[in-house]
């Protein structure tokens, strides 16, 4: 006799217990603590903060531990936590010109005020597995020097002085916030940039790469890439002035792109922009390229039908939490819809079968 | 700050607003029905029902228009303290509150756009009574027909002719609430409703 | 430990959702955009329904959750537990005892009453989405009441197959105005949408849309004069309770591919069995 399957509740509890055991792994191996993840897997922590839209290295490290290193799962934990946080207000815009740069490079000028600072980069490491890391060992101290003081002016500012690059006038309009208002098309640049900065790194990279290979190619030069800390200030109405409430590490990329000029504009360079939490230069460069591609309409360029030009396509598919949720939901039971399809296919096959018989008879 | 400003909010905001919302939702889903709503003690001339509706639905994202006698310093201060809702005129409001005479004419309120008919105002109409049914209602939410006490007829007939655009109404009196969405067809005893075509012409 | 608010969502979020629900009720079938929040469960797993439920529940409610008609599927269990924990509501599996029912893919067999609210989880709220992927275009089509594309699609089915080849998420027209996606319920359930005594609310979290059907709303499934809409189900009785009027799941019960058919609505089936209705796979004689 048939007995219906029961006990969903117990199955879930048992699955959670098993998951916790797998997360811990072999108990004879020392357990990772959150501080170790924060300090030693800092680029993973940065990605979780950037795509989770929450600047908190300790929570990001905890999320990575809880998610067994699955970064999208960790981003999801951070997003779900973030939603529950009360909002006390908005910070004043950060000034990346006042950034204390750990790294600052320009691909367009060999030298420039503020200098080129290579910083802690993988760029010129030979990608050879370092077996010494497999054993424990101390790291020799890196050489250091006095920190530079003063602002590091943006490369695009120099081009702007000559009128060689499009103006980017300061705009004090409060930007829209897609975490508080439903996404609506057409999306202005501020909204697109917000979506891109929390977009999936892989998706953004793929789109940016597609523009380089000719799908809406926009000939990007990395005018400048900078990574460092900036102070965050907030206006306190009761005090009547802004107070520094902390600092964040940011990666900023400004691209300088070719532009032929249009009927109304003389030939000049145009801009693409990327700004991401933490050290995240692959993401920041990708963001700048995609930003530039999405600007085709305001720059009077042709719509080449390229994926990176299609704001609706890019913005509706860039969020890995939305994408992964919907993709994975097809694991859920669909007995009912499948049953209705089964009946339909049987009915259509019967009808088709009958039709053939009739044709043969005629 | 006046004591009156600080008091009269929901004692337990999440529970009181959950119950108050269910009353408003039932009223909007079933035009013609009267629902009890409680938990608020707003300054005069607001009814407890109107106070509860405002506390349940308004916040910093919803500009509110206070019409006529409802626009007092005490009401403004109370609303600002408990909801943070910005004050505005009729043409940009999400919610408007007042007596029927103070709220009319209706032409200035946002009725939504063809692509976003939801971007329209909801008028909270303070009524002396809800117990004098004067109009027959038909439409979604109503099994056959329902009766409701309305301050007049023509304005509502015209409003429903704008469907899917139009205004939605919440009527408050004492500690009771009723509602009339734009989808409801309003018939009065001795007049026929305008058809939708006539109304939109 | 962090204390979460009643029904998890903060008050401001609930107000935003409540405002959207009211506009949805005022414009039946129209999809109201809302700023869906990130929930502690994945998009596509009922975040829209969960947010709507969180916005309507009071501690006095009795809550039921079904997935595919069943109370004991894992995702239904998970959502029910979520609200037990965060809202402290009573839960039930009995359709008649529930005041709020959250559902994925089914409408209960038992007719609902006017003290009840049915909350649907919706994956893709836009009925025109598979014909036109762009939101900017479909929004325009709704505003102009331009539904020709949908009729063309359905008619192409008829000319190719002799039938309309849509068996679930079958589009409906609400009060003669908006074409609406009823969520992926089988078309067997479509006739229950109209003239229902309960309030029906639809939540699509990832797609950020809420829509609604007030009680007794006129809902018609799209069709053609020469090909009228037909609600269909497997042509069997339930193997467990012998019901012939319920939607059935098909089960494969042995290695040779033997089948049996069982009510997808587990509460309906169990209540019938308790009342003495016994199907042929349950020790009974033949299905009635």
Describe the structure.
- The complex is a heterotrimer of chains A (362), B (201) and C (288).
- By secondary structure, chain A is α+β, with helices and mostly antiparallel strands.
- Helix content of chain A is 40%, strand content 13%.
- Chain A contains 12 helices and 4 strands.
- In chain A, strands 1-2-3-4 form a 4-stranded antiparallel β-sheet.
- Chain A is globular and about 75 Å long.
- Chain B has 201 residues and is α/β, with parallel strands linked by helices.
- Chain B is built from 7 helices and 9 strands.
- In chain B, helix 2 packs across helix 3.
- Chain C has helices spanning 11-26, 47-56, 74-87, 135-143, 148-161, 190-193, 266-274; strands spanning 32-33, 62-67, 90-91, 100-104, 117-121, 172-174, 178-180, 199-204, 209-213, 219-221, 248-252, 259-263.
- Chain C has a 7-stranded mixed β-sheet.
- Chain C is globular.
- In chain C, 58% of the residues are buried.
- Chains in contact: A-C, B-C.
- Chains A and C meet through helix 1, helix 5, helix 11 and helix 12 of A and helix 3 and strand 11 of C.
């Amino acid at each position: 006799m048939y007995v219906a399957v029961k006990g969903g509740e117990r199955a879930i509890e048992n699955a959670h217990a098993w998951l916790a055991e797998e997360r811990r792994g072999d108990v004879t191996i020392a357990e990772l603590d959150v501080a170790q993840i924060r300090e030693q897997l800092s680029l993973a922590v940065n990605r979780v903060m950037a795509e989770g839209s929450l600047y908190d290295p300790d929570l990001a490290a905890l999320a990575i531990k809880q998610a067994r290193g699955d970064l999208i799962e960790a981003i999801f934990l951070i997003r779900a936590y973030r939603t529950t946080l009360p909002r006390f207000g908005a910070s004043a815009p950060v000034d990346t010109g006042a950034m204390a740069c750990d790294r600052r490079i320009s691909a367009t000028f060999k030298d420039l005020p503020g200098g080129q600072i290579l910083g802690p980069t993988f760029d010129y490491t030979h990608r050879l597995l370092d077996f010494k890391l497999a054993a424990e060992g101390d790291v020799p101290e890196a050489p250091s020097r006095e920190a530079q003081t003063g602002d590091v002016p943006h490369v695009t500012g120099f081009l702007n002085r000559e009128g060689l690059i499009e103006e980017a006038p300061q705009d004090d309009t409060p930007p829209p916030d897609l975490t508080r208002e439903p996404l609506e098309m057409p999306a202005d640049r501020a909204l697109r940039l917000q979506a891109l900065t929390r977009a999936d790194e892989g998706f953004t990279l793929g789109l940016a790469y597609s523009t380089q290979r000719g799908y809406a190619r926009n000939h990007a030069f990395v005018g400048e890439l900078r990574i460092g800390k900036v102070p965050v200030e907030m206006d306190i109405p009761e005090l009547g002035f802004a107070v520094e409430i902390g600092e964040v590490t940011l990666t900023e990329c400004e691209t300088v792109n070719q532009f032929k000029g249009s009927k109304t504009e003389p030939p000049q360079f145009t801009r693409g922009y990327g700004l991401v939490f933490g050290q995240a230069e692959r993401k920041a460069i990708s963001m700048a390229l995609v930003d530039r591609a999405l600007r085709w309409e305001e720059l009077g360029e042709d719509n080449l039908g390229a994926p990176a030009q299609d704001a609706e396509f890019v913005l509706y598919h860039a969020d890995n939490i939305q994408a992964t949720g919907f993709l994975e939901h097809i694991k859920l039971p669909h007995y009912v819809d499948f049953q209705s399809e089964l009946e339909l296919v049987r009915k259509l096959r019967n009808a088709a079968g009958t039709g053939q018989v009739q044709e043969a008879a005629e | 700050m006046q004591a009156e400003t600080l008091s009269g909010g929901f004692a337990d905001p999440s529970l009181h607003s959950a119950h108050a919302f269910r009353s408003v939702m039932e009223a909007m889903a079933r035009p013609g029905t009267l629902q009890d709503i409680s938990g608020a003690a707003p300054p005069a001339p607001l009814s407890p029902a109107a106070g509860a509706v405002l506390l349940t639905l308004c916040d910093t994202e919803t500009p509110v228009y206070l019409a006529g006698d409802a626009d007092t310093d005490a009401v403004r201060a109370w609303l600002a303290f408990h909801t943070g809702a910005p004050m505005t005129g009729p043409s940009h409001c999400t919610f408007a509150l007042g007596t029927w005479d103070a709220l009319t004419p209706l032409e200035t309120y946002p009725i939504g756009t063809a692509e976003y008919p939801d971007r329209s105002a909801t008028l909270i109409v303070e009524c002396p009574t809800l117990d004098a049914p004067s109009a027959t209602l038909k439409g979604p939410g109503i099994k056959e027909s329902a009766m409701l006490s309305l301050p007049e007829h023509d304005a509502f007939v015209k409003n429903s002719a704008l469907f899917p655009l139009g205004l939605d109404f919440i009527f408050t009196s004492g500690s009771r609430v009723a509602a009339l969405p734009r989808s409801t067809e309003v018939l009065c005893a001795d007049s026929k409703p305008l058809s939708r075509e006539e109304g939109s012409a | 430990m962090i204390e979460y608010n009643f029904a998890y969502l903060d008050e401001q979020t609930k107000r935003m959702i409540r405002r959207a629900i009211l506009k949805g009720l005022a414009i039946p079938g129209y999809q109201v955009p809302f700023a869906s929040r990130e929930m502690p469960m994945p998009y596509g797993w009922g975040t829209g329904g969960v947010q709507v439920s969180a916005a309507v529940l009071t501690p006095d409610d009795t809550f039921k959750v079904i997935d595919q008609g069943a109370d004991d599927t894992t995702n239904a269990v998970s959502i029910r537990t979520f609200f037990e924990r965060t809202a402290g509501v009573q839960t039930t599996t009995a359709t008649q005892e529930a005041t709020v029912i959250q559902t994925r893919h089914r409408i209960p067999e038992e007719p609902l009453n006017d003290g009840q609210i049915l909350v649907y989880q919706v994956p893709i709220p836009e009925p025109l989405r598979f014909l036109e992927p762009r939101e900017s275009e479909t929004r325009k089509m709704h505003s102009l009441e331009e539904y020709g594309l949908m009729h063309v699609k359905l008619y192409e089915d008829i000319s190719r197959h002799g039938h309309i080849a849509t068996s679930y998420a079958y589009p409906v027209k609400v009060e003669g105005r908006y074409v609406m996606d009823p969520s992926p319920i089988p078309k067997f359930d479509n006739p229950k949408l109209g003239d229902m005594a309960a309030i029906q609310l639809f939540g699509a979290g990832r797609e950020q849309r809420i829509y609604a059907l007030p009680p007794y709303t006129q809902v018609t499934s799209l069709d053609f004069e020469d090909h009228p809409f037909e609600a269909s189900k497997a042509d069997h009785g339930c193997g467990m309770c012998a019901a012939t009027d319920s939607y059935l799941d098909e089960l494969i019960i042995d290695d040779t591919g033997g089948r049996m058919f069982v009510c997808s609505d587990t509460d309906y089936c169990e209540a019938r069995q308790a009342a003495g209705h016994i199907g042929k796979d349950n020790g009974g004689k033949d299905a009635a």
